[in-house]
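Fold this: Sugar ABC transporter substrate-binding protein
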Amino acid sequence: MKKTLLAAAVFAMMATPGFAQSYKFVIVPKAMNNPFFDFARDGCQKRAKELGNIECIYKGPVEHEPATQAQIIQDFITQKVDGLAISVADVAAMTKSIEAATAAGIPVITFDADAPDSRRIAYIGTDNKEFGVALGKQLLKLRPDGGKYAMISGGPGAKNLAERVDGVREALKGSKWTEVGGSPTFCNDDPALGVQQMTDLRTATPDLAAIIPVGGWPMFAPEGFKAFASKSKKDIDAGKFTLVVADTLKMQLELLNEGYANALIGQRPFEMGEKAMDTLLAIKKGQKVPEIIHTGLDVVTKDNVAAMLK
């Protein structure tokens, strides 16, 4: 009888939250100096706290360095963490890393940037082709008269950014817009370089009518972006030069509100971080999860930017 009571007591203790299985899940951004990923971190940590039995670890390269990202992932494989959510900086490098993690019994999902032909279980984030289409359509809506345009991208090995570039081109195909040679440029997620490339593009093509950064990098250096846009402010106000930029971080909304850009198309990185924790937990529990989880887009112009800032 005593053994039965003792067993029942132990079972009851194990069923309480304090004895629940705990997990260490890691979210690995492309670059920790990119403020976009701060929101994914915040969403991850908030959801981990709500769930109670999860630790959200946030670590990636300081700057956009695919080799460093691969090494960080290898370190976490060695530590035998319980799950990885990776924003893929370079598809080829990360496919190998994902293979290594999977072989070690660690489930891997991707967020923000995918490696669809790898052994990742799920992707959480933007439909990047549609993202690019939305950027192109917004430019076409603002300037149906067309002209010459250029794009700025991040890393050349990032599949999500290549899809955005393709989406912009698809949206503008058959219109009066023509892409200049050398577009897109690649800033490797470096905000200062993104601003410099905007300046270089404007200098190389004085009649350039629009620039579309397919990520928010130039605006992540707000003072540098403002200095660039100030030189073209008259043309921006007159509708002769148009800036349609990806992402909707606070500093970007403020720049748009001050008239230094024409429109923003935003992602939802906070939600990506939340859903990453839910998805990894479901996988650990043996539940089936959707392979693709899209988090949606937001279109922001001068008409609704004030509401977005509240």
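The chain has two domains: 23-125+269-295, 128-266. Residues 1-18 have pLDDT under 50 and may be disordered.
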